[in-house]
Amino acid sequence: MAENHITSDECCQFLFDEKLLKSINFDESQKRLDISVSPSKLGENFVMRPLSVGDYDKGYIDLLAQLTKVGDITEEKYQRRFREMKECPNTYYIAVIENTDTRKIVAAASLILEQKFIHEIAMRGRIEEVVVHTEYRGKHFGKVLVESLTLLGGKLGCYKISLDCKEPLIPYYSKFGYKKEDVHYLVNRIYH
């Protein structure tokens, strides 16, 4: 099956334990989102899994470039950042969808957890960097990733999960239970 394309070395180098993604019950989500796909049924030759140290060669950075500016990221820089993220347990959950035929990453999304003292030392989650390769849009991969990471955040004990999006995308993210709150979001962009 599709999973045998992932080498044992890459499996050991996942950003987080892949069992977390496999433990998500997606049945109600499929009905609510009116989609036939799920994390375990993405179609032949597609697999959803945690980001791997080997995903630089599978086009992860190129995929992110379809979303935003990424800069000049060498494999060495990628691996260093991957290790830094992995060394922060219970913080970074980046899920990807790989086309196992082409060995390319075709979709990705991130869940970042913030440890809090409020709400009885709860966690807050943020969904970020949701991107589907232009050639694979329309297959509901974005929906599967956002819903999976939202469910994962709940399972991990988040008291709330937020995401930032542009005004035209509010109806899309509303399908997952995200609501526009009456708060002001301010940004201080510091470029290096």
Automatic annotation (TrEMBL):
Record carries keyword Nucleotide-binding: no
Pfam families from the UniProt entry: Acetyltransf_1 (PF00583)
EC number(s) recorded for this UniProt protein: 2.3.1.4
Lineage top rank: taxon: Eukaryota
Sample GO molecular function, one term: glucosamine 6-phosphate N-acetyltransferase activity
PROSITE patterns: GNAT (PS51186)
Keyword terms of this UniProt record: Acyltransferase, Transferase
BP GO terms, sorted: UDP-N-acetylglucosamine biosynthetic process
Primary enzyme class: transferase
Record InterPro entries: Acyl_CoA_acyltransferase, GNAT_dom, GNPNAT1-like
Catalytic reaction(s) noted: D-glucosamine 6-phosphate + acetyl-CoA = N-acetyl-D-glucosamine 6-phosphate + CoA + H(+)
Pathway: Nucleotide-sugar biosynthesis; UDP-N-acetyl-alpha-D-glucosamine biosynthesis; N-acetyl-alpha-D-glucosamine 1-phosphate from alpha-D-glucosamine 6-phosphate (route I): step 1/2
Protein family according to the UniProt entry: Belongs to the acetyltransferase family. GNA1 subfamily.
PANTHER family noted in UniProt: GLUCOSAMINE 6-PHOSPHATE N-ACETYLTRANSFERASE
Protein name as annotated: Glucosamine 6-phosphate N-acetyltransferase
Organism field: Paramuricea clavata
